[in-house]
Design goal:
The protein is α+β, with helices and mostly antiparallel strands and about 375 residues long. It has 2 domains: about 180 residues, no CATH class; about 160 residues, no CATH class. Helices cover about 55% and strands about 20% of the residues. It is built from 14 helices and 10 strands. Strands 1, 2, 3, 4, 5, 6, 7, 8, 9 and 10 form a 10-stranded mixed beta sheet that branches. β2 and β3 form a beta hairpin. The longest helix is centred in the C-terminal third of the chain and has 39 residues.
């Protein structure tokens, strides 16, 4: 196949040993950055998914006392678009995440409210049964069962487990089918076995689509009072705020890696340019301008950078997809192989490499003397 002397693919096809190293370096850099950022984002995603039940209701807990003051309870019941309001007594288990164990609420709800709460969270009883009144039993949703590697009949809370303590062993008797994380037992059991009782007032909007507005109203009207309002919007804000510094550090690392790669790639590009002085000297001597030669080098560099970035994205997607299905999903953890933030973080690498390489080579061509090169070649 014949190629024009200034074709940008000519050198790349004839000299793969010089173009492949740059491509592989860029590919590995993109793979590393995308994978690290995607894993960091999986922490955020997992935490928000674990407490996803908070989308469907708000929880109000007392401050400075065991129970919510009557006037505050009355205020909550007068909230616009409020539906049902009832009290639960909770205990705690934990969920496994990449950063360690996170506390997870086991809601002790009245027996006649169990099916309603499960349906509100878009779940249904898939296996087993609901906990019996006063019995040391729980029903857990499927993601939580996977996360804890539990089966029907397994013990969840125990006197022998410090971080999942219960005065008596508590067993799984029901599996809730669906994607929402939820753990429920009976109010009689938590009131009898956990002291002092940790009371929550669950507040449901009449229409689940109005829940965010109800959450906002509760936060505004209970601010500064002896009550704490737990909403999904607040959870999102706190989670993003907690990881803000981590993302800042990640951004600094990405910039440093980009500068290092840009410097290294620019040096390699200059070395390869030095080895091609005769080629460029002859081309300029027979009439090709410096601008056309710079355009050729520019397109060669662009092709290498795009190829390296594209391969890095494809390999990162493949590895992250494997990690999602083989490592994360079986543990009830969440990873997004097509996370746009992860790939956005890789963009500074090809851009800085491109600018540095083109800048240094352009400077060399600016002072390039083809006559000297040709005379040296003839001699």
């Amino acid at each position: 196949m014949k190629c024009h002397p200034l074709s940008p693919v000519l050198f790349l096809l004839r000299n793969p040993g010089r173009s492949l190293p740059l491509t592989l370096v860029l590919m590995l850099a993109v793979l590393t950055i995308a994978s690290v950022v995607a894993l960091l984002n999986s922490i955020d995603r997992t935490i928000l998914k674990i407490y996803d039940y908070n989308r469907y209701f708000a929880a109000v807990t007392p401050r400075g006392g065991e129970t919510l003051k009557p006037e505050l309870r009355a205020l909550v019941k007068r909230a616009p678009s409020v539906g049902e309001v009832y009290e639960t007594i909770v205990c705690f288990m934990n969920a496994e995440t990449i950063v360690g164990k996170m506390p997870f609420v086991v809601f002790g709800v009245p027996t006649d409210k169990m099916e309603q709460l499960v349906a509100r969270c878009r779940l249904r009883l898939g296996a087993g049964r609901y906990p019996a009144p006063g019995a040391p039993e729980v029903a857990l949703s499927e993601p939580l069962m996977r996360n804890k590697k539990l089966r029907l009949g397994d013990v969840v809370l125990s006197p022998l487990t410090p971080d999942q303590y219960s005065p008596v062993p508590v067993r799984v008797v029901g599996v809730l089918k669906g994607d929402t994380w939820l753990a429920i037992t009976t109010e009689e059991f938590t009131r009898t076995h956990f002291f002092p009782p940790l009371r929550n007032l669950l507040v449901f909007a009449a229409d689940v689509r109005q829940q965010p507005k109800l959450d906002q109203w509760l936060r505004e009207h209970l601010r500064g009072k002896q009550a704490r309002v737990w909403t999904y919007a607040e959870l999102q804000q706190e989670t993003h705020r907690a990881f803000k510094n981590l993302y800042f550090i990640t951004g600094v690392v990405v910039v440093l890696v980009s500068l290092m790669l840009a410097t290294m790639t620019g040096l390699l590009a200059n070395i390869y340019f030095q080895q091609r002085l005769v080629e460029f000297g002859l081309l300029q001597a027979i009439g090709y301008t410096r601008r056309s030669l710079l355009a050729r080098v520019s397109w060669e560099t662009v092709l290498v950078v795009l190829l390296g970035w594209g391969l890095g994205v494809l390999v990162a997607f493949g590895i992250l997809s494997w990690a999602k299905w083989v490592v994360m999903e079986p543990r009830g953890l969440y990873l997004e192989p097509l996370d746009p933030i992860a790939y956005r973080y890789t963009l500074p690498v090809p851009l800085m490499v491109l600018l540095f390489a083109l800048g240094t080579i352009g400077w060399r061509l600016r002072t390039f003397d083809p006559v000297t090169i040709v005379e040296r070649r003839i001699v």
